[in-house]
Amino acid sequence: MEPEEASAQEDGGSRLMLRVERPVYDEEFLGTQLLHRKQSSTSFRQKLSDKFRCSSERAKAAALSFLPILTWLPSYPVKQYLMSDVISGLSTGVVQLPQGLAYALLAAVPPVYGLYSSFYPVLLYTFFGTSRHVSIGTFAVVSLMIGGAVVREVPDNMVIGPTNVTNSSLANEDLSPIDARKVQVAVVLTTMVGIIQFVFGLLRFGFVAIYLTEPLVRGFTTAAAVHVVISQLKYLLGVKTERFSGPLSAVYSVNEVFSKIKQTNIPSFLLGLTCTVFLYGIKVLNERFKQNLPVPIPGEIIVVIVSTGVSYGIPLEKYNVSIVGYIPSGLLAPAVPDFSLALNLIPDAFAVAIVGFSMSISLSKTFALKHGYSVDGNQELIALGLCNFLSSFFHTFAITCSMSRSLVQESTGGKTQIAGLLASLMVLLVVLVIGFVFQPLPQTALAAIIIVNLVGMFKQFRDIPPLWRTSKIELAIWLVSFVASVLLGLDYGLLAAIAFAIITVIYRTQSPKSSILGHVTDTGLYYDVNTYEEASEYEGIKIFHSNSSIYFANSDRYVNKLKEKTGVNPKELQAAQEAKRKRKKKDNKEQNSSIKICAEHKDATEEVVPQSQEMQEVRNGELEDKHSEPTSEAAVFLEPLSSVHSIILDWTAVNFIDSVGAKAIKQVIKEYASVDVRVVIAGCNRTVLDELNTLQFFSEELSTNMVFPSVHDAVLRCQCSSSRPPGASSEA
């Protein structure tokens, strides 16, 4: 065997040339002579002890991983970053304050709890989070999911007695019993969300976000925006309606609002409409002149201040305009959540935990990629879990990052989470000192803030035309996610969307694209013969390629496509062979009868001289007696049944194979062997080879010399085998 020689040279100074001269390899040779596995001298016990060995370096690495603030705070460049973080923090706090009040309405709890949720979690994320730019706090989608669970467990017409509210949870004695009960449900749900996220982070389950593909998330958040707008119509119109939850809640809510549209409170509607138009105009100006504005115009805080001033000057309560109401000064004492309510909230907790993490990690990765740093998905889960779990003892509801606030924090020059810390301190200042100022704030103004902040989500409808042009399957995921979430509710809609996304993956693996490959002259490259005119097939060789792994769900389809694309069906060939044999046998009988009739018409004394051996051989297959019939049948079997003598299975796209797939391939190889068609495998990676060995795929009949490292190796071996005379050695 000649040693392998390879060279890469410049051809005319324009293109690199590759020249390789080596023997044709198969897996039998590779596994026994060319490749040798490394021998691991480390036992399982040693690996386990190394895994749990404690050292100062590991302790330091664990501390830095658990508290990312320790990696950047000691080297924080005060002169370069501090002023930018201060400006960004103040700008973000100005937005966070009205959003905290507004999103509490979505969570079906009094507005002050939105302020609590805008302080404690943000403070904790500064220490545990890995993203430098996201703004943690209340978010419309998560708040709405919390509100749906709260309203389901505590409907507005529910009668609440004093025994239904524990003293520890009713830290705010000014709440009505039904509001206190709603706070209990929201708080215990938040505790469960925190536990789930924290445990997922410890178990390194940060990868779960990959199952929420971008079309699914965008369709889901667009549907959530529809739910949010529907839930705010009653505040905008100033009508009293029942709040629904569960499947078709959006339809029931719209029907309820329009059934009472004649009861619209005109002052509330006019004020809300004015705030909406003003906020939208400010948003357009901020977007158009963002390069010229040092900081975005704080439209939300302007609306809050002006509408509160209007409410002070004109007592809107006289006109039946709903206002925020009592906002207690100071922070509430911590209390243990009422876990007796937890059983019915388990599905909601998982849904909120996954959606909250998905929104946070997607936005975190976007900013990290833009600014050149990395985020740890598992640590983000831990950070969100701690934020939700610990904060829930201080009467907060579930949080995640907000897209609008994060964009403000990043666009105003924020460098680290010091900006988020300053924003939370602004909220704390309001809670401790001036919270009472916002008591006459009209709820219709908060509804306007919520609706205008959803404009960005409604722009996601623009995804539909590009998806139609690029990927019909992803468009289907987007539409199913949107429609299911609108009609079934966010919890069941998310479940249905995930299930549909998984079904599309199964569909793609069950129905992969398959093709017959041909070679491009003088390249050693192989491409689809139906797509590229330069690709041509070798005579007698079919190269079958399929873009999928082989497992129980698609093994039958793989075999059927193999037979269809190659045009070689062993059963049909065997049936044709059997029909040919029977026809030959029938012809032989007729020919023998003719000989007998001719002999009878000759003179009785004339003897029929038997044919010589040479004549018998010459006329074999034309005129034979009954003694030569077995020879005729053998001749039938010696004739080639198909012009194809070799089939190459290109497994470069195969990532795994299970026992069902291995059995199907083994069976089809035997079927083709019965009609003298050789099947070999090319481009099989080492992982799949290990799986085949584990599944005991190889045997005396199917040895590893039928597996080749590349399609070209397989082609050369098949050409050599087909040109070798019968009985020659199979060694190359």
From TrEMBL:
Residues 531-718 form the STAS domain. It is found in: Membrane. PROSITE patterns: SLC26A, STAS. The keyword Cell wall biogenesis/degradation does not apply. GO terms for biological process: regulation of membrane potential. The keyword RNA-binding does not apply. It comes from the Eukaryota. GO terms for molecular function: formate transmembrane transporter activity; oxalate:chloride antiporter activity; sulfate:chloride antiporter activity. It is a multi-pass membrane protein. InterPro entries: S04_transporter_CS, SLC26A/SulP_dom, SLC26A/SulP_fam, STAS_dom, STAS_dom_sf. Coiled coil: none annotated. The chain crosses the membrane at residues 102-127, 134-151, 183-203, 266-285, 297-314, 349-369, 381-398, 418-438, 445-461, 476-507. Gene3D superfamilies: STAS domain. One of its GO terms (cellular component) is plasma membrane. This is Solute carrier family 26 member 5. It comes from Poecilia formosa (Amazon molly).
